[in-house]
């Protein structure tokens, strides 16, 4: 899911929210983000968590990527917390 948070937050413009079902899937997703952005020399300003914890946050300034395990995504419910944000893309 891609949320436009620019009208409700001053620290970023977008949240990318994605889920994996296993630690291995989260690791693959993290690797894919890293590899996909490395040709443009984009590196995160900040990084929190790891795949084993069920939540990895990658801060690219205007875009913040959240990679969740299924249970963690349901528990933290960022879509509900940021319900005033505008959904741009939703894929299932």
Description:
The structure is a single chain. The chain is of the alpha+beta class and 92 residues long. It has a domain of 51 residues. 28% of the residues lie in helices and 32% in strands. Strand 3 and strand 4 form a beta hairpin. It is globular, with a radius of gyration of 13 Å. The mean pLDDT is 93.
Map the helices and strands.
Elements: E1 2-4, E2 14-20, H1 23-37, E3 46-48, E4 55-59, E5 63-69, H2 70-76, H3 78-81, E6 86-89
Parallel strand pairs: 2-5
Antiparallel strand pairs: 1-2, 1-6, 3-4, 4-5
H and E order: EEHEEEHHE
Computed over alpha carbons, the radius of gyration is 13 Å
Strand content: 25-35%
Shape, please?
globular
- The class by helix and strand makeup works out as alpha+beta
The share of residues in helices is 25-40%
Uncertain segments are none
Biggest pleated-sheet summary: 6 strands, mixed
What is the end-to-end distance?
9 Å
The residue-averaged pLDDT reads 93
Q: Count of DSSP E strands?
A: 6
Counted by DSSP, the helix tally is 3
Strands in their spatial order, largest beta sheet: 3-4-5-2-1-6
């Amino acid at each position: 899911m891609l949320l436009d948070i620019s009208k409700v937050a001053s620290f970023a413009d977008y949240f990318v929210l994605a889920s994996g079902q296993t630690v291995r899937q989260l690791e693959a997703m993290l690797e894919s983000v890293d590899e996909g952005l490395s040709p443009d020399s984009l590196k995160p300003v900040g990084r929190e968590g790891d795949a084993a914890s069920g939540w990895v946050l990658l801060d690219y300034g205007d875009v913040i990527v959240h990679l969740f395990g299924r249970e963690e995504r349901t528990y933290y419910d960022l879509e509900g917390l940021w319900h005033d944000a505008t959904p741009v893309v939703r894929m299932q």
